[in-house]
Design goal:
With about 300 residues, this protein is an alpha+beta fold. It is built from 12 helices and 7 strands. It has helices spanning about 15-45, 65-75, 80-85, 95-105, 110-120, 135-145, 165-170, 180-190, 200-215, 220-235, 235-245, 290-300; strands at about 5, 150, 160, 245, 255-260, 265-275, 280-285.
């Protein structure tokens, strides 16, 4: 199974393709505008004048704030805000959306939703990704044993793993001390004859393309920029793949892994998103054929402490 990749600098689409794309984008924009109007009205209705320091006054029939009050507090014109809330196709800037979001007291997911509906690129405040998982998530991946399972973030940092994953991947020749990052291990510590990924010339480009797909949400963040720069300085192969500009989304794949004790195993990987842990996923592996299942079972039985 392969994952489609797109490269920057690809051939220009035909006029017919551009026209069809424009029609799709137009329909999407037409659907977004009513959603934007309904979203703004609902956020305005949940605030009271007291919430923003305004006296309620008499004959207030509007639940929550009035449009003119939101406009005044946001520093924008009443007519402009009215048009925005009516879903009219007006030009919107990030600065104005920020002002409206502050007035309506939107939290981070609501603010991002507002930007998407208004078709304005969202550049949220950089936040440190999670560095560990909860006991509940750890118990879930432990329960998947004897199937290997791991929790990755978008940068392929390994946040948690079960015993079967350690059986399959961790040995002295592959993962050394230091970073718990799969890409770092693959590109800086593994020589071809020791690499657990058998068809690494096919698989590594896909992994780098998936990394670049996630990188678009983190451009300029110190942790990401330093990781990519350092890995590129340590691995010419990574630097070459990164410069290609290929992009691919995460998805199910069939991979072949090599273990020094039991040989090769074909495994199907499935990615599962984790609520409350943005850009993190559980990746679980299942044997793709009976022989791979038997070899995986041999690894479990051969554990030094006899754990099952």
């Amino acid at each position: 199974m392969t994952t489609a990749m797109t490269a920057t600098g690809a051939d220009h689409p035909s006029p017919e393709t551009r026209a069809a794309q424009g029609q799709r984008e137009g329909r999407a924009g037409h659907r977004r505008r009513p959603e934007l109007a309904a979203f703004l009205r609902s956020r305005r209705a949940r605030l009271t004048p007291a919430d923003v320091g305004i006296a309620p006054g008499l004959r207030r029939r509007t639940p929550g704030l009035r449009r003119e009050e939101v406009a005044q507090l946001s520093g924008v014109g009443v007519t402009w805000y009215t048009w925005l809330e009516q879903g009219r196709p007006i030009k919107v800037s990030a600065q104005v959306l920020d002002a409206v979001a502050r007035t309506l007291r939107l939290d981070r997911p609501e603010r991002e939703h507002l930007y998407h509906l208004a078709e304005v690129p969202y550049e949220g405040v950089a936040q440190a990704g999670p560095q560990s998982v909860s006991p509940e998530i750890q118990s879930i991946i432990d329960a998947l044993d004897p199937r290997p399972a791991v929790v990755y973030n978008a940068r392929y940092d390994m946040l948690a793993a079960n015993r079967a994953y350690s059986d399959l991947f961790v040995n002295d020749r592959f993962v050394g001390p230091g970073r718990s990052n799969v890409l770092w291990a693959l590109f800086t510590q593994a020589v071809p004859e020791h690499c657990p990924v058998v068809f690494h010339t096919l698989e590594l480009p896909v992994m780098v393309a998936q990394l670049r797909g996630a990188y678009g949400r983190h451009v300029g963040e110190v942790a990401w920029e330093s990781f990519i720069a350092e890995l590129a300085s340590r691995s010419e192969h990574f630097a070459e793949l990164w410069q290609r500009g290929d992009v691919a989304p995460p998805g199910p794949r069939v991979k072949t892994f090599r273990h020094k004790d039991v040989g090769e195993m074909r495994m199907t990987s499935v990615s599962l998103e984790i609520n409350g842990m943005p850009e993190c996923r559980i990746v679980a592996y299942s044997p793709d054929d009976a022989e791979s299942g038997r070899r995986l079972e041999r690894l479990r039985v051969a554990r030094p402490d006899g754990a099952s």
